[in-house]
Amino acid sequence: MDIYRKAKIRKNAAWIIAMIFAGFYTIAAAVPFIYMVLNSLKGQFEMLTSGVFALPEKVCFDNYKTVLQGGFMGYFARSVIVTAVSLGLLLFIAAFASYPLSRMNFKMRPVLYSLIIACMSIPMHVTLIPVFKMSTASGLYDTIWALPGPYAAFAMPMSVFILTNFMKTIPREIEEAAEIDGCGKYRNFFEIILPLAKSGLSTICIYNGVTFWNEYAFVKTLTQSSAAQTLPMAMNYFRGENSMNIPLILTVLTLAVLPMIILFCILQDKLVKGMTAGAVKG
Amino acid sequence: MAKKENITLLRNRQKATAKAAVVFLIPSLVLIAVFIVYPIMDTLRISLYQWNGISADKVFIGLDNWKALLKDGRFWRSFSNNIKIMILSILIQIPIGLLLATFLDAGGKKCNVFKIIWFFPLLMSSVAIGFLFQYALATNGGLFSSISNFFGGGNIDLLGDPHKALYTVIGVIAWQFTPFYMVFFVAGYSGIDNDIYESAIIDGASRAIYVRSMALPLLKPTIKSACIISLIGSLKYFDLVYVMTGGGPGEATDLMATYMYSKSFNYFKMGYGSAIAAGMFILITTIAIVIRKILTGKET
After folding, report:
1. Looking at the complex, does the CB of residue A100 fall below 8 Å from at least one CB of chain B?
2. In chain A, which stretches have pLDDT less than 50?
3. Scanning every residue of chain B, which has its alpha carbon at the shortest distance from the alpha carbon of A125?
4. Does B94 lie in the same domain as B33?
5. Do residues A88 and B200 touch, judged by C-beta distance below 8 A?
6. I need a labelling partner for B294 at 20 to 30 A (CA). Which of A44, A116, A194, B262 fits?
7. Can you name the residues that pair with B60 across neighbouring β-strands?
8. How close is the nearest chain A Cα to the Cα of B2, in Å?
9. pLDDT in tens, B65-95
10. Contact between residue A118 and residue B285 where contact means Cβ atoms under 8 Å apart
């Protein structure tokens, strides 16, 4: 009886400590967000005079109006286009590559596979100057079309890695049966493998979609005018225009995370799974 | 006769397969060749020149950039900053991520609210986090200053002080990426067969014993790959630091990538910038290979 009670006390104590820790971490994770949203609702000077944790005197969406009318939607639209085009390019090419790498036997396979996978830990900075040179030479510099190529290329190794592993799990019999029925490799790919690989494709969509949406170094290097830039550069732009208006910039930040938060609410588990997909095995 | 025919048939099929494989692989190989392999070669070539990136006159200077790089205190300092970030990231993010995951695993469904809130930082882009914390850590009207003022202390200058700036940056990085390791380990926990837990409990083990002597050993491969991811990520770090501190104050938070970027695109020393980039590439590749050998060589 006594042992039982002791164990119960100990268990409760452990839970209390765990809850305190959880509470602390929750505060640490949430406070910057609260700071951001709360102050985005204030006027330019109110934030400094009334203190950062004070509730706004009256909730005003003026900042949101200014930002939304001040070119934010353009950045947003360009981000959508760039992300969509890069994803389309990536999905096709990565699926093409993963098919023979996962399901065909040919001599060069191990070499080509390790070549593609080896590109995974290459820092993009080592390519930055030449890619910049190429973009100016080809006339794509300072347009959004300079971006999908490097994006897709750098996302390729991880995507091929994920997709090859996924395609390996599709039973061979399905393909063999189709082959007996006279299906060639190409029809096989489009009519059997691609539809069956849908969930693998959606995983790499999420994983890379988030990366493309947030990408910064290439946009900063390959574009210059605000008419060619994506969301991560919007923050620079608005700060340039209103350098002293902190609440306005916090508004830009809030609006920039909003789509991600909405996406997270809709497909929570899928998003979490997708974002860690690349980490299955270092 | 028949045998010979069979062999040619087989060979024909192999040929057809190889041909199809090549066709499928060409687009990806072209993309990688154009945007990764060729640029790496070109970077190595440009590193032998003195060039401002715009004008036509490139001066071939041989290995001078490389000699300068080897003696460049700022480069090695930024490399050591990368190493500091790497070590502290592993020491901070992975244990906390593991603790949070353990909590979530023990708490089950009723702790889902925590999971959602804890995940939030990962939804923000590095650039946005950089901007946000630039304001949140500001001396005037920042979070910490406000809290310190509330308790009667003075303003706190975290990013302006060269001794504190790097550790502040490391703290912000931890804020951003701990949730990643959390969900990573949550996935690891859910990969453990439920029977193992149940039989441990039936045998009279407590949750703590289960975690310590059964779950953690089973999570070892997951922890290892988390370490590798953190390692390589820390060496490549760029966006957040570039936005938040720009490498400053002074050179206190310079990283290899931010140093390379500002040399090449702010000061237009593309030749030297290429040498930095190539040096960074060599260092990262070497470290990645060595660490992978150490961590996965013994047992897998």
Report:
1. yes
2. 281-282
3. B277
4. no
5. no
6. A116
7. B49
8. 22
9. 899 899 998 999 999 999 999 999 999 999 9
10. no
